[in-house]
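1st attempt posting a full record on here, be nice pls
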Amino acid sequence: MKIIIAATFSKVFFINQTVLLLLNISCVALLYILYVTQHCVKTLLNVALCKNSPQIKINMKKINSILVVMFFSLGSFCQGVKNTSYKNEAGEKVLQLETILPIGISVAWQLFTTDEKLKTWLAPVAHIELKTGGYILTNYDSTKKLTDKSSINSPIINFITNEMLTLKVNLNGNFPKSAIAADSNLQHIIRLFEIDGTHTKIVSTMVGFGESADWGMTYDFFLKGNDWTFKELLNLYH
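the predicted structure (as tokens):
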């Protein structure tokens, strides 16, 4: 059963990666077409204006503004998950992923802090007690209850409304024993940044990884898992 689940997950992950690649290629093509269109419009207008036609009165600034709006709209549509991971001053690995959602910051905050919204992208079974010392309970099996031993409990260390949510990550029995034994500092920090009234940048940062080979496996697991989860979140809007 574990092998079947793993194979299914790998297949879904591969399909998502392929779809994302095709989407990016399409977006590049669209942006190139937009660029060519802009220059064609300018050329045609220059020719028309050179003929001193009194009937043609074109506001080039307005045309450029429209093209810029189209450009950034396409850029927003093509937004994927960006890996900005790094090593901090102590030489510790910091796993960091970023994405932009086409929604306001208060709506984005609800995606992480309400039962209803968590169920749309994180897990089919979910419950949050939003408070310092609270928790998020999830189960990826829609037939299970939150009281089932397979449910995942993520304690809430702290939060700032519309800005930040910090979770303690507790490794379960599926991870290497040495990592589980040393799992005292692993945390997941979710930050929200308002770009404008209809766009919010989400930054997911995990800190507290060790340096052993087992910790390397743990890091790789969360890198793939968090990337896949973020893409599920983006699928709500694309």
